[in-house]
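[scheduler] slot 2 assigned
[scheduler] job type: sequence-to-structure, two independent chains
[scheduler] chain ordering preserved from manifest
[runner] begin chain α
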Amino acid sequence: MILYILLKPVLFILLHTPRCVLMAIAKLLGLCLWHLSSDRRHVAIVNATILGAKDAKKTAKKSFIYTFMAYIDIFYAKRINKKIIDKYVEIEGLEIYEALKKEHKEMAFISGHFGAWSLMATLAYQTAGIKLITIGRSTKNFAIDKILDELRTFEGIKYVTHRGAMEKLPKYIKQGYMPGVYIDHTALGKDCINVNFCGYKVPVIAGIPALCIRKNYPAIFFFTLYDGKKFKVIVKNPVFPDKKLKPKERIIKFIEDINKVYEEVYRQYPEQWYLIHRRFKRVELEDGTLSGYLYDK
C-alpha cells in the first residue's frame, strides 16, 4: 500500500503529460535499451530474422522504439475521445466485424503485442462499440497490479488478471462483453498447447481458444498500427472452430489459424511487433522437449 501511495503522484503527472513528451521519453528509453542490453538486442534480431525482415538489425532497432511507445501510451489511453478518434484514427476492415456480429452474438477478440497495443482496447470500443473484458498477467505486486487495473479499465472495458479469469468470463459475456486476449507472447507449460508459429512449435495459452471451441465462438482480429502521428486500426478476417475435427485436433487447428493471422500481420510490419521478448524460448523438439536454442549465441 505504501508503494501505491508513493507511485500515485508519478502516475498523476504521467497521465497529464503531453503525448509528444511521452513519445520523446519512449524513444529515448528504447534507444538506451538498444545500446545497453546486448541480450535484448540479440533476441530482437533473432525474432526479426524469423519473421523474414529484410534488414533484421535495423528492424530490431526500430522495434525497441515502438515497444516503448506502446508501453508509454498506456498513460495516454484515458485521453482517447471522439475528437482524437476523428482526427488521428483510421480503421480498415470494420465491415468484416459488422458482418460477423450479424451472425454471431458472441465471439472472441484477438489482438497482439503489436503497434499501439496498449491503446487497442479503448480504440476498439471507441471505433466499433466493442465492450471488452481483457485478460492480462499479474505482476504479483499489489501496487503495480492496482495501478495497471486503473490504467486498463475504461468505459466499456473491464480488466482481469489471467488467474481465475475463466471463471469470471461467463458473467461478463452475459452482460455483453467480449473476451479479449493477446496470445502472441511467451507462455508457460501450464495451461498451454504447443502449435506451429513461424515454422516452430511453441506454447500458446489455450484458455480463450478452448472457450471458443466449447462455445463455437469465432475469433475476430484487431491490430493497431503506428502510422506517423496517427493510428491505423486493422481488422482481419475471423477464424472459426472446425466442428468436423476431434476436440484436440480442433483446438490445435483453431490456434494455428490464429497464428497464421499473426504471421501475416507481423511479417508485413515486423518492426512493430514486440521483438524484444523471447517468444521462441520454448520450442518443441522432435523428442517433445522444449528448448530455447534459437537464442543461443
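[runner] end chain α
[runner] begin chain β
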Amino acid sequence: MKRQTRREFVKGGALASLGAGVNARLASELWTEVKGSLAHGSTQGAVPSRGNPIVPGLGLCDPQVRVFNGSVYLYATHDYSPENKFFRMDNWWVWHSNDLVHWELVSFLEPQQTFLHKPYTECWATDAGTRNDKFYFYFSAGPTQIGVVVGETPSGPWRDPLGKPLIPRGLTPTEERDPGILMDDDGSNYIIFGTWNYYIAKLNEDMISLAEVPRLIHLDKKFGPYGAGKTDDKPFLHKRNGVYYLSWGCFYAMSRSPYGPFTYKGSIVNLEDTEPDFRTENLVHDRHGSFFEFNGQWYFACNDQSQKGSQKFFRNSILSYIHYKDNGEIASIHIGGLGVARYDAARGQVQATEFFRIQGGYVQESPGGGFEVRGLTNGSFLVYPNVQNVPNNAKLILHFSSQADEMAGIEIRQDGPAGELLGHAVIHDTGGWGKYGDCTVPISSASGSVNLVFVMRGSSKEIVRLRSWEIV
C-alpha cells in the first residue's frame, strides 16, 4: 500500500473497511498515520456506518462508554495486531460519536504521558469520570496498578496529576487493574477494580485520591464465563431507578448499595438472541464492557471475537440495546450486525423500544411479552434515524394498543419533530391497554433512506402504547 493511499484511507474515514485483510505491518502503518494526524491537530474523520462491530479491524476493545456534554465518548484499549499471540496493547484510545453510528478517533494516551514515562505493552482496561468541569481518564498499567490522567475536555489533552499510581500494587488481595467508575446521583464517585474478587472505594472530590480504604464487595453467588465459583476481571457499576448493577462482562448482580451485598442474576447474552454470524464457541467469554444511557435509551457495549479477522488477542467492540424488566432485572440482549441507531426496512418488523431518542415516554414490559413504549402523550416523540431500503410508495404499519377516548394520532415526520410530514396515523381504541391493533399509513414521499420521527397528537392523557412498526 502506497503512503498516499494510506493517508487517504485514514483521513477519508475508511478505517472500518480494513476488516479481515489487515495485517500487523499495515495496522502499524495506519496507526502511525493516525498519530501523525492527531499530532497536527486533526483526526482521521468519522468511520462510515457499519453497524456491528462499530469500528472493525482495528483492535478497538474493552469499550467504556460515557456521555459527557450530550455526546458519547468511548474510552478503549487497543489490541496491537491481528497477529498478536498475547495481549499486546501499546496505548489507550478515546473515540467520539453523536449518533452511535459514525465514530471518530479524537484522542489517544501514550504510556509515556503517564507515570510510566516509557513505552509499555500492557495498556489494559480503562474508564472515565468527570467533576467540576474536568475529566478523568483511569487506566490499568498491566495487571498490577491503576493510574489516572486529567484533562479539560473529554478527549484531553491529558496530564498525570500524581506522577504515581492511584491504586498501587499490593493495596488489596486482588489484582489492581480494570477500573470502573460510578458517578452516583448524590455527587459521590466510586472506583471499583479487581479480578475474581472486586474492591470498591469512594473517591475524594479531587477524583485523584481515595476517600477510604477499598472494601471487598460481597456476592451471594459467583458465576461467570469460567463456570461456578468464579466471576471474571473487568467489573463495572451502573445505577438505574435506585438499583446498583455490578457486572463482569455479560454477567451481573443487583443491590441497593454500591458496596453490596449483591444478588447474582445471570447472563444477558444467550445463544437464541445472537445472530448466527455472531455466535462463537465461547459466547459469554470476554464480554468486557459497559452500560450507558443516551437520549433516553439504554445500551451495552462489549468486546466481540466472532467476526473474521478477530481472535482472542485482537478483538472488536459491539453495541446492543438494553431493556429492564418491571422487577429491575435485565432482559437478554440481541447481538447482530445491524447494531443500534440503524434500521433496515427489508428486515421486517422493528421493535418500537429500539428507538434512538425518546421525548415524553418510557419502556416497560408488555402484557403480551417483550417490551413496549408507554406514557406517550400529546407532543411526545420517538426518533428512528438511518432507516435503509425504504421502497417506493411505501406504507408504514404500526402495532399498538390504545384506549383513547377522543381523536388521537401519530404524525410521521422526517428528520425531526417539526420536519417534513410524511403521513398521519389515526389511533383508534383497540379495546383497552394490552389489546393490540394495527394502523397502516402511506409514506410515499419517503424512499431509499429516511430518518423517521413519530410525533404524538391528542390529549394530555396517554394516547398509545407502541410495540412495533414495519415498512412494506
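[runner] end chain β
[qc] chain β: The longest helix spans residues 24-39.
[scheduler] slot 2 released
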